[in-house]
Every structure is written in C-alpha cells, then in structure tokens.
UniProtKB/TrEMBL annotation:
InterPro entries attached to this UniProt entry: Methyltranfer_dom, SAM-binding_MTase, SAM-dependent_MTases_sf, WHD_Rv2258c
Residue span(s) of domain S-adenosylmethionine-dependent methyltransferase Rv2258c-like winged HTH: 29-99
GO molecular function, one term: methyltransferase activity
Protein's name in the database: Class I SAM-dependent methyltransferase
Matches recorded under Pfam families: Methyltransf_31 (PF13847), WHD_Rv2258c (PF21320)
Entry's Gene Ontology BP terms: methylation
UniProt keywords, alphabetically: Methyltransferase, Transferase
Keyword field contains Protease: no
Domain of life: Bacteria
Originating species: Rubellimicrobium roseum
Residues annotated as domain Methyltransferase: 176-335
Length: 356
C-alpha cells in the first residue's frame, strides 16, 4: 500500500470521521426504531403530550428501566423532546407521523427491516462478491420481502391512483370503463390491489415468480375483499394472457435477469393502443449525479439484493436499482417500443410510460 498518510488534510479527516460516526449512530438507532415500533412505544406516545418514563412504560406494557434508556436514545437522536423541569418525554406530531402511523406515506420503521435482512445475509453477500454468483430474491432473510413491500405500499398509496395513473396518456379513462391490466413482478400485490380497488370495472392479473409473495398477495386480496384481481406464478418473459391495456412493472424490471425479454413480452401482450407503466427507483443517468441519501440506500440494496437477484435470474443485463432513464429507455427501444417518456417523479421513484 502506498503511503497516503502525508496527504491527509486534518480538517477533511475530522469532517469524514464525524460523518462515519453519524452513520454508525444511525445504525444503532435503527434497532431502537424497530423496537419502538414493535413494542408500541411510539404509538403510546403519539398525541399524548409530555409523559414520564413510567407513563410510557405502563401505556406500552414494557419494563420502565428499559423504556427510560430507550427514551434517552430517542432524545439523543432528536426523535423525542425531553422536558428537563418535569422530567418528561414528548413525541412531536411530525415524528409521530413518521414513526407511529402505519398508514402515513412517510412511515419509516418497517424500512429498517431491509438493512436488518442485509446484515443477516452478509455471509451470502461475501460469497456472491467473491464468486460473482447470484442470490435469488426468495433466498434472503424473510425481513427483506416484508420490508420492501411495506416501504413501497406506503409510497404507492398516496401516489399511484391519484397522481401516477393520471400522468399517463388516456389510461384512467380506460381503467374506469373496464380494462385488462397485468402487474408483472407484483410481489405482495399492494400496487395491484390499490388499482383494483379504485377501478372495479377493470380486471387485474399479478404475476411473479416468487410463490410466497403471491400467497401474501392473495391473503391481502381476501382481507380487502377484492374480487377483480388474481395472482399467478409466472416469469416476466412468459406470463399468460394477451390484449392487456396496461402492463405495469413496479420496482421490478431492474431486478430481472433479462429486462429486454420482459419488455419484449410486454410489447407482444399489449392490446392495440396499450401502454406500459414502468415504476423504478429514482435515479439520474450517471453515477456522479446519484449522490444523495436516497441514492446511497438504493445502490447499497442494489449491490446485495437487486444485482444479486438479476444475476441469479440469468444475468443477461444487470441494470441495478440506479439504472436511470437513459438505460431504461434503451431496454424498451430494444424491445420494439417507439415512445418512452418520464410521466412523473418523486424523490423515491421515476414513473415512465412506454408505447409501441
Ligand atoms: C423489489 S420486488 C418489488 C415487488 C412489488 N412490485 C413492489 O413494488 O413491492 C421485485 C419483484 O420482482 C420479482 N421478480 C424478479 N425477477 C422476476 C422475473 N424474472 N419474473 C417475475 N418476477 C420477477 C421478485 O420475485 C419480486 O417480487
């Protein structure tokens, strides 16, 4: 190793050590957030005003000494406000919206399942990096699938029906009148069910090659009493049916081992005038433009989950979760689509529309 010590700038070193410590601190805090969620500590505090540690403990049915230490961690991180004079703790309304309301579009605690699963699967990632072999979606720690489904369900709920579908050309009118829709790589089916509930005259088919996810999707459909959606095991390049007015990919195309084959299947299965809605993680086209906390999360999950699955799924084209619009456009051009545009974007997602 070359001697780089003489090149170290002390101010830059201080700043970077500070950043690294902040990151480690956040990782510790994630465990506390997960405990706070699962033990009902946040819900015990939401809207309750200032509470003593004893009150938080008795409202959540937990042991006070543990709760007091947990509260200290929350205060240290700015999640909970501490009132010195009364020795009480308060969860501000903004924090409650993010931490205590599972239906909030910015509910975060379940997202910690994703890094938890990545840590649990570190031995598999080490092996994959060293050998170049893949890791299938279903071979990860169970928390991965649940964490991803919960994270995206909350993102889709306020956006998919009110904002994303209307941003597509003429799609809402078709869905209202009664259309055929395929949701390819549907996972737990949250996207399928949101659309099926909003458009009862339309018929929805969810396809995925991971059976346990489809079992979950069917349970969700039964629980919600949705009758116009069904879920089937199928590969993205080999699902049944034709004449679909809309074919959707939600956070799934970049996971597939052959995205061009999946897009080609869509091209051949669309009804005349039909379209593809492609929802992908937000990304710019170049690595140097993807420098943000969101990009960091996506690249990290991509390294051990998305790329790993695509490699296990044949690895013909491993897009990764930060593919960006230009590379996605190229996939659809190769599949025979002539129109491709960005219809909507959020800090987390790109919504793209493709037509033949
Ligand atoms: C990140 S998950 C997204 C699930 C869901 N669409 C969502 O938004 O929550 C990617 C999904 O794509 C599925 N998938 C990956 N490769 C596939 C393939 N070749 N054919 C069908 N499904 C595939 C996985 O099983 C997984 O359920």
């Amino acid at each position: 190793m070359k001697d780089y010590h003489s090149h170290i700038d002390p101010a830059k070193l201080d700043a970077f050590v500070g950043q690294a410590v902040q990151d480690i601190s956040a990782a510790y805090a994630g465990v506390m957030v997960s405990l706070g969620d699962k033990l009902g500590l946040y819900t015990a505090m939401a809207g309750a005003g200032p509470l003593s540690s004893r009150e938080v403990a008795s409202r959540s049915g937990c042991a006070e000494r543990y709760v007091r230490e947990w509260l200290g961690s929350q205060v240290a991180g700015g999640y909970v406000v501490y009132h010195d004079i009364s020795d009480t703790y308060e969860l501000p309304p903004e924090q409650a919206f993010v931490l205590a309301d599972p239906d909030s579009p910015v509910f975060m605690p379940t997202a910690w399942n994703i890094p938890a699963s990545m840590w649990a699967d570190e031995p598999k990632a080490l092996e994959a990096f060293r050998t170049g072999k893949g890791i299938a979606w279903g071979d990860h720690d169970d928390r991965l699938v649940c964490g991803v489904a919960a994270f995206y369900r909350n993102a889709y709920r306020p956006s998919l029906v009110p904002l994303w579908l209307p941003s597509l050309d003429g799609v809402v009118a078709k869905l209202e009148a009664g259309a055929k829709i395929a949701d390819v790589g549907c996972g737990h089916g949250h996207s399928t069910l949101l659309m099926a509930e909003a458009f009862p005259r339309s018929r929805f088919w969810g396809f995925d090659n991971h059976q346990p996810s489809l079992d979950e999707a069917r349970d969700h459909a039964d629980g919600a009493g949705v009758r116009n959606a069904s879920f089937h095991v199928a590969r993205a390049d080999d699902y049944p049916g034709e004449g679909y007015d809309l074919i959707c990919f939600f956070d799934a195309l970049h996971d597939m081992g052959d995205p061009v084959a999946a897009a080609t299947r869509a091209a051949r299965r669309l009804a005349p005038g039909g379209s593809v809605m492609l929802v992908e993680p937000f990304a710019n086209d170049r690595v140097g433009q993807n420098v943000s906390p969101v990009a960091r999360m996506y690249y990290s999950a991509s390294a051990t989950v998305c790329c790993a699955h695509a490699i296990s799924d044949g690895g013909h084209m491993v897009l990764g979760a930060q593919a960006g619009e230009a590379r996605l456009r190229e996939v659809f051009r190769k599949a025979g689509f002539t129109q491709f545009r960005r219809a909507f974007e959020t800090p987390f997602n790109l919504v793209l529309e493709a037509r033949i």
